[in-house]
Write a structure and sequence with these properties.
Oligomer: homodimer
CATH class of the largest domain in chain A: Alpha Beta
Number of helices of chain A: 13
Shape of chain A: elongated
Mean pLDDT of chain A: 93
Number of domains of chain A: 3
Strand content of chain A: 25-35%
Helix content of chain A: 25-40%
Chain lengths: ~425, ~425
């Protein structure tokens, strides 16, 4: 007795697409045992080969592994329009046009799965959407970009400068020739938007996410962080503030004792917090064709089972209309490094500026003397706009020769 | 328009049962939004109240939160027999009689979900069963018992003895009055059996799991471990060796740089390894009524959706007939601490015994002199039976006054 076929139209055949095709062939027997369907790739679309209409007509499911917003977006919408469920690993597309895609899938009653879009092979989306339905999550905090974590790890452990490590990462293939998407936080912001959407049943797009990259992090910052008991990481943070969603991506000092501080090299980890579950962490390699392909296969097994049963997975229909909290209203802790005149009264002047802006100082530390006199401040929690006002005030002070560096501090209570 | 009811028969109303009832009431709206069904508890069975037959007749799903093998086992089987899907948090029952229960659920085409049985609120079972279907997992390695991890953490960080910390843990309610289930590794072995079953599609029961507890771990062992760069943890390990399953629970030295070494107090963490995903880790509070209740709610949402769709979740039918590898064939590294005569030639005699048994020494370290002369050995990987033979040989040596301690070493390659 031969199982019915399950025909997959594969869009894209790059690193992830090729790894997916290999893994699927390897695991076809297991997939068949679970679903009762025999999976096979019925057509492949790349820039140079394949006819999209033919592929669509001859498949039961579309696997979109092209990446980028176009032409992937148009192809996914066309697939849904023709009644085909979709599995995608496309974070940019989901973060930019998720609402449109989810609505299209809902209209047609079709599955749209995307476990591979965040954290590569780390199961994240499904635990958040399904296992944690019983929890009212309050916060998601993670290292979701392997390239920047690799760079920051090397800077921290080998004392090397950003440009130097970046160049090496590019040589080794860990960073793209154009590293902007990673280094400036665009990749992390897309993942942050997706995590925020899933965790809080909200519609959050990339442009809702406050974003700063790591290009301005210096070895000096990392050294000060170390001395103060912190490690510098690029974090993606999504929080619920009353009923508003706050989402941001930026470098931050994290206490060395925090589990995220131990996440090194190209590894990813996502912390999830809620009143009942406390803190959960999901950790693993966040990228790589093979790891990502396992997530795609996991999704397609579920879609195949749903098709067999004539149903679909947890839909995208229960989004709440949440507003986005502006970054100005964020309350956080800050580290600020100033080069200052070396004379008496300077600290009092600076403290006065902080006080006027309602920013209270947690610790201050003097370094060097004379032309090299520097002051390092770590604040208590303060509003972002108040802190920025304070920084503007400091820049106008004669005593402050240079605002050398500002970093956020996360993970302390 | 009012949603159809979804009636839950709740068996057991202890810590988890009560937390579940509270959480369900709190999240009923969310559950209804996702499933289209309005959940409510239609009956509660405890030792002193409730009629099981009435509860069964009046419910759509049974939630078994009693714990222990009986009467829970008979009740779950009766529920399945009457056509009711079951959600359970009962690790003892699943680890002892899982096969019988899964077969009963399969025969009736019913859901049997048990996310809460391992790792409390940490999503583990579903990621292993569903998200990682695409992976051929090779190993699961975890800290799955919070009580023993709390005890070992206190012993390590405060240099206190086992009995002392255990007594404190009992006073604080972190350990039971009868601590056997935790301290002797029974609880961890049950969870290990479940993890092995899920990860390897095998039928592994508690009695298949090699088991040693932590009662013989001394502060001296922990101190030696620290000096050698290790931390002592109680580990549950399930591995695939060719097509055989090996499952064991025992204290082990773990390199201080290993992510599991940083899992402190009552936290749990499970490492999962496979050729494609590499290493994944799931971390969180492994117990507690509220955390466990979130897993139960997550399961019942899925069962409710499956019922609505007239389907069931990934069944339990694709178990492979795997055999269990005997512990004698295990290959591992060992730490052994000997009190020895302080004279020349002793090391050569001991090394001779190891060599005769095919156990090769990685490092040796002498401590003290005279009556206090001690030798610490760490071996390379050796077969368990060979190592035990070597230990028997050492015990017969006149030069060896006492085999003070033996610990396994894990997490090194």
């Amino acid at each position: 007795m031969s199982a019915e076929p399950f025909r997959i139209g594969l869009l894209g055949h790059g690193t992830v697409g090729a790894a997916f095709a290999t893994l699927l062939a390897e695991r076809a027997g297991q997939v068949e045992a679970i679903t009762g369907l025999r999976p096979s790739i019925s057509g492949v679309l790349t820039r140079s080969r394949g006819d999209f209409d033919e592929i669509l007509a001859g498949c039961d499911l579309v696997c979109e592994l092209i990446g980028g917003t176009e032409p992937a977006g148009a192809l996914v919408l066309a697939a849904l329009d023709r009644g085909k469920p979709v599995v995608t690993a496309n974070k940019e597309l989901l973060a930019a046009r998720g609402r449109e895609l989810f609505d299209a899938a809902d209209d047609k009653g079709l599955d749209l799965y995307f476990e591979a879009a965040v954290g590569g092979g780390i199961p994240l989306i499904r635990p958040l959407k399904e296992s944690l339905t019983g929890e009212r999550l309050s916060r998601v905090l993670g290292i979701v970009n392997g390239t920047t974590n690799y760079i920051l790890t090397k800077m921290s452990e080998e004392g090397r400068a950003f440009d130097d490590v970046l160049a090496e990462a590019q040589r080794l293939g860990y960073a793209e020739a154009d590293p902007t998407a990673d280094v400036d936080g665009h990749d992390a912001a897309a993942k942050c938007a997706i995590l925020a959407s899933i965790a809080f049943n909200a519609r959050v797009v990339s442009s809702d996410v406050f974003r700063e990259g790591i290009a301005r992090v210096t070895t000096e910052d990392i050294e000060f962080a170390r001395r103060l008991g912190y490690v510098v990481k690029l974090l993606a943070i999504a929080e619920l503030d009353d009923d508003r969603v706050a989402a941001r991506v930026h470098a931050a000092m994290v206490p060395a004792s925090h589990p995220l501080a131990a996440v090194r090299d190209a590894y990813n980890a996502v912390f999830v917090e809620g009143p009942n579950v406390g803190e959960l962490m999901f950790y693993g390699r966040g990228a790589g064709g093979e790891a990502t392909a396992t997530a795609v296969v996991g999704d397609l097994v579920t879609v195949a089972r749903n098709l067999q049963a004539g149903t679909r997975g947890v839909g995208c229909t229960c989004f709440l209309e949440r507003t986005i909290r502006p970054m100005a209203e964020h309350r956080g802790q800050y580290y600020i490094l100033l080069r200052v005149e070396d004379r008496s009264g300077v600290l009092a002047e600076i403290a006065g500026v902080f006080a006027e802006s309602d920013v209270s100082i947690k610790s201050v530390w003097q370094e060097g003397a004379g032309d090299d006199a520097q002051l390092v401040f770590v604040t208590h929690r303060a509003r972002e706009d108040a802190f920025q006002r304070a920084v503007d005030g400091l820049r106008e002070l004669r005593a402050v020769e240079e605002v050398r560096s500002i970093l956020r501090v996360e993970g302390e209570e």
